[in-house]
Amino acid sequence: MPTLTTVAEWTVTASGDTATFTHTAAGGHWAPRVWAGRGLAVAEGDLPALDKVLGEVLKLPVYWLARARRGDSAAGEAAVWSEPRYDPEDEFVYLTGPCRTDSPAPGYQPASAFAIDLVHLRGLRIRIAAYRAGS
Questions:
Q1: How far is Cα 31 from Cα 99, in angstroms, rounded to an integer?
Q2: Cα separation, 37 vs 59, whole angstroms
Q3: DSSP state of 74
Q4: Is 29 exposed, middle or buried (0-12, 13-18, 19+ CB in 10 A)?
Q5: Distance between CA 135 and CA 116 in Å, rounded?
Q6: What is the pTM (predicted TM-score) of this model?
Q7: Low-confidence ranges of the chain (pLDDT < 50)
Q8: pLDDT at residue 74, as a whole number
């Protein structure tokens, strides 16, 4: 898979219409957590870098080509993701939405990598940006 972009702790690669995110803290306490098919949790301190890497991907032709192939005018809407919820006990921000891993397990599990369809990245960025603006 070709690397699309790297920002701070995040690297994004793409295959077909799917973006795969990896984080340098893979396996550590601050690694992203994924409940495959249900949601994503990111350490609050990692949100600025995730927001930035999402913005970089949205500028790339691979994103726009995926949207064109989808043929759905609602693709990329924020509604596919929940409003972010901060948990002060673990300092993570949780969002339900279309995030997945290669090894699905029940509940939020640390993930060395996770995948999201390219068309859903805009909605994720909208939710994260709104959360950051309100914090």
A1: 15
A2: 26
A3: T
A4: exposed
A5: 25
A6: 0.91
A7: none
A8: 73
Confidence (pLDDT) at 76: 84
DSSP string, 18-56: EEEEEETTTTSTTS-EEETTTEEEEEGGGHHHHHHHHHH
Six-digit token string for 105? 């397990």
Question: What does the alpha-carbon distance between residue 87 and residue 73 come to, in Å, rounded to a whole number?
Answer: 33
CB half-sphere exposure, 28, CA atoms < 13 A: 8
> In b/e form, how buried is each residue of 84-114, taking b as 16+ CB within 10 angstroms?
beeeeeeebbbbbbbbbbeeeeeebbbbbbb
Residue 21: Cβ-neighbour burial (10 angstroms; 0-12, 13-18, 19+): buried
Distance CA 116, CA 17 (A): 9
pLDDT of residue 38: 92
